[in-house]
Amino acid sequence: MAVTSSSDRGSWNSKLGFIMAAAGSAVGLGNIWGFPTKVATEGGAAYLIIYLLCTFLIGFPVMVAELSIGRRSGKNPVGAFKALSDSKFFPFVGLWGVICGVMILSFYTVIAGWAFGYAFEEIFYYFGWDTLAQLLTDTGHGPKNAVIAAVFMFGTIKIISGGVSDGIEKATKTMMPMLIGIIVIMIGYVLTQDGASEGVKEYLLPDFSKINASLIFSAMGQAFFSLSLGMGALITYGSYLNKKENIPQAAAFVTLADVGIAFLAGLMIIPAMYVARNAGIEIFVGDQLASSTDLVFQILPALFHTIGGAMGLILGVVFFLLLSIAALTSTISLLEVPVSYAIDEYGLERKKAAWYIGLGILAVSVAVSFNPSLIGTFDYVFNNLGLPIGGLLICVFVGYVWKTDSAIAEMENGFIGIKQTLFAKVWPFFIKVICPAVILYNIVSNFL
Ligand code: PFF
Q1: In 3-state terms, what secondary structure has residue 284?
Q2: 329 close to ligand 1 (CB < 6 Angstrom)
Q3: Atom 11 (ligand 1): residue with closest C-alpha?
Q4: C-beta 364 within 6 A of ligand 1
């Protein structure tokens, strides 16, 4: 099938550029804020193990499927399903993905804004400007939330307007290595502090009795969100992928980068909680965490303030800037999904599409800024449920409509001889049977 493309569509300049961009999409608040919080509240090392299983056994095969659909069709999620089948139903699956992306982005920018605000909070705190510092810690402050979310959205729109290789690829190629460097430095610091070893034990020594259905549902949702799966972000990124690239290998790099950074973030934050406790900060009430969803936003600033002085300031600022950078490389991919849809399906110019859609989503972000309780609802509908449902339908599409043989044929570009590999024998079984069965079971058991 011909790959239609216009100058507004664009493509990746290099394989590394693609991997950095896809890893940038994967690595975000989900890794550094969501994952450690869930580890801390839902079972420590047991959660880590189930999360790893979900990532490699369910997430990785779905990622390969999304990238294959994207590269074969050369289209956005809606156009891709139209291009690869006559089905009237599946383009709606693509549209559902676009809607999930838009809605996730509307609250993601608000949380990213909190993180960005905290970088300044650390500075204001250091200089004793308490009123300003307190304003930035107030996650319920509508006008403050809206202003910072807007700053974040403008940054995202600017990068997306720049296009695929000059905008997305350039930005993520410099930001990703910085991010990893900063995390490693933070781990080095935290692990040398008193109390850290207790956190390391909690993080790495599993208590298998903690594994149950709700833990597995949560870990699966986390894996989808973290890998940016189920809403066509990787169909979109795959559509800019060169035919020379090896899809399973690229997907493996991205998966490993995502898991690696989540693992490192856990190794930084879980011990940091115990260091904080050791320093007299209350993190547990009985054996429950004192704050769960805002773990990162409550406990870590307290820890930085306890460290105090220039060291506390530097660590605090650097950490929250890092979180903001990670969030930005994810908001880029969230906005790229509807933008590519508008470019492909409605012939809109990239810059216009980025601004119109970005500002439209910002309007929803402003509503969320003033009603942060919407975050929980949006997160449940469009993330916890929306992404696994999207992932399930993508498996059904590749397994039974487009067919795994067609996908393997697409993967032969860039991976000659794939048909003789074990991967070509095992992957179709995962896409047709294992992944849909596990995802469906999890969704149903969640409702029950
Ligand atoms: N993977 C991102 C994170 O972990 O924060 C969130 C995300 C980005 C989800 C892009 C979905 C997506 F398409």
Answers
A1: strand
A2: no
A3: 228
A4: no
Cα 431 to averaged position of ligand 1 atoms, centre (Å): 22
Cβ of 340 below 6 Å from ligand 1: no
Distance between CA 240 and CA 66 in Å, rounded?
12
Q: Is residue 402 part of a domain?
A: yes
Q: How many domains does the chain have?
A: 1
- Please indicate whether residue 31, judged by its CB atom, sits closer than 6 Å to ligand 1: yes
Q: Determine the Cα–Cα distance for residues 387 and 232; give it in Å rounded to an integer.
A: 9
> Whose CA is closest to atom 10 on ligand 1?
228
Q: How many CB atoms are closer than 10 A to CB 370?
A: 14
pLDDT tens for the chain, residues 1 to 448: 333 444 566 777 777 778 888 888 898 999 988 899 889 888 889 999 999 999 999 999 999 999 999 999 999 999 999 999 999 999 999 999 999 999 999 999 999 999 999 999 999 999 999 999 999 989 899 999 999 999 999 999 998 888 777 767 777 777 777 778 878 888 998 899 999 999 999 899 988 998 988 889 889 999 999 999 999 999 999 998 989 899 999 999 999 999 999 999 999 989 988 888 888 877 777 667 766 667 788 777 887 887 788 988 988 898 888 889 889 889 999 999 999 999 999 999 999 999 999 999 999 999 999 999 899 899 889 998 899 999 999 999 999 999 999 999 999 999 999 999 999 999 999 999 999 999 999 889 877 7
Q: Is 262 in the pocket of ligand 1 (CB under 6 A)?
A: no
Domain that holds residue 78: 6-447
- DSSP strand pairing (284-285 vs 288-289): antiparallel
Assigned domain for 168 exists:
yes
Atom of ligand 1 nearest to the CA of 234: 13
Which residues lie below 8 Å from residue 227, measured CB to CB, with a gap of 6+? 26, 55, 59, 62, 63, 254, 255, 258
- Beta-carbon count within 10 A of 179 CB: 24
CATH of residue 158? 1.10.4160
Is 1 part of a structural domain of the chain? no
**Three-state DSSP class for residue 288:** strand
Residue 363 placed within a domain: yes
